[in-house]
């Protein structure tokens, strides 16, 4: 089934190929799923406009969004082990094949998990334009931002969730940051293991602490930069729109290295952190883990108009703040890259009152993104029905 191409979007792909300019937006034009969660076989063809998935609970809406999220880097929007994504009654693996207007023009992307590789922690296969690639390479082609119900507790929950949210922004702005993030994490785990193995060799600690200090400063600098850019964009939008449909957020980054970096040069901050790690060895040994560092940083969010920490806001207010943040993130990626990312919004419409829902649809059309939205009630989407592709999802089948 091919959804009707709308005038607004028609010719976008061809124009890009002819002029070699960055495409306006990333969008999926064809998607095929095999043995992916509840889908045995499913195939859809799409145009660049927003996509609305309507269906009962358990019909497969979030599964479809999750498949789309795997066209980018990372572990998908639920962050689950790949083995869990293989259809239970299937052949043991899963496959997602798509044609996508990517940052580098139209490209075929395939990703999957081969039957037999059931062990936890195994990677997925990735093919871009017919060539085997790493998962990290996908981030250079397809960027996405997402909001799912599991993120509802972002402001009240643990700092690690907010840090992950922030690092996804960092990666969206600079996919190359995956390396220092991975390097820091590996070095820290090894350092923690030394404590657990009762290892005292100073040379071993020094090597790992050096890697942690170097990668840590790169991470902290990228986080500060991302928060600064997002803050500037939020401020700009507030000035231009005078309030806007979603309350603006005031962001602050709390962390040892981030604080150091806002006061000193990168070299000084790196030396200071290396020294801190060295001096903290006894304390960390007692705890069997590294107590201080960028792996403990936190993103503090304040409801701007009310000047209240987001954690103390009502659940509706928190949802609106989150949505505002996610849309600002999409807008920032677009401003920096010239190409809008995919926007995946799971069960968002149902939690907004009518005026906010209309404002959300207005923002999606203004940003010109291929937003994927889900809901159980088709009526909720009537204000955007003319400008979107509405698909009905039912027991692993998708119909236009
Ligand atoms: N690996 C799997 N194999 C088979 N079925 C699966 C697998 N993983 C999940 N499912 C099933 O897929 C179904 C659809 O799940 P999904 O989360 O997409 O529903 P949904 O349409 O988003 O529902 P809701 O409106 O409740 O959020 C569920 O019934 C779930 O049990
Ligand atoms: Mg769902």
Overview in brief:
The chain has helices at residues 12-19, 61-69, 82-85, 135-141, 159-173, 178-196, 202-241, 256-263, 266-279, 281-287, 315-337, 354-367; strands spanning 27-36, 39-45, 51-54, 94-102, 105-113, 125-128, 131-133, 144-147, 249-254, 298-303, 308-309, 342-345, 371-375, 389-394, 397-399. The chain is an alpha/beta fold.
Notable features of this structure?
single chain, 400 residues, Rossmann fold, Glutathione S-transferase Yfyf (Class Pi), Chain A, domain 2, 6-stranded antiparallel sheet, 6-stranded mixed sheet, 20% strand, binds magnesium ion
Task: Note down, in words, how this protein is organized.
By secondary structure, the chain is of the alpha/beta class. The chain has two domains: 12-143 and 339-399, Rossmann fold, CATH 3.40.50; 159-303, RecF/RecN/SMC, N-terminal domain (Glutathione S-transferase Yfyf (Class Pi), Chain A, domain 2, Up-down Bundle). Helices cover 42% and strands 20% of the residues. It has twelve helices and 15 strands. A six-stranded antiparallel beta sheet has the order 2-1-4-5-6-7. The chain has a six-stranded mixed beta sheet with strand order 8-12-13-3-14-15, with helices on both faces. A three-stranded antiparallel beta sheet has the order 9-10-11. A hairpin with a 2-residue loop joins strand 1 (27-36) and strand 2 (39-45). The longest helix has 40 residues, at 202-241. The protein is globular and about 65 Å long. The N and C termini lie close together (7 Å). Bound molecules: adenosine-5'-triphosphate and magnesium ion (MG). Magnesium ion (MG) is lined by residues 61-62, 346-347. Adenosine-5'-triphosphate is lined by residues 37-38, 55, 57-63, 84, 86-88, 376.
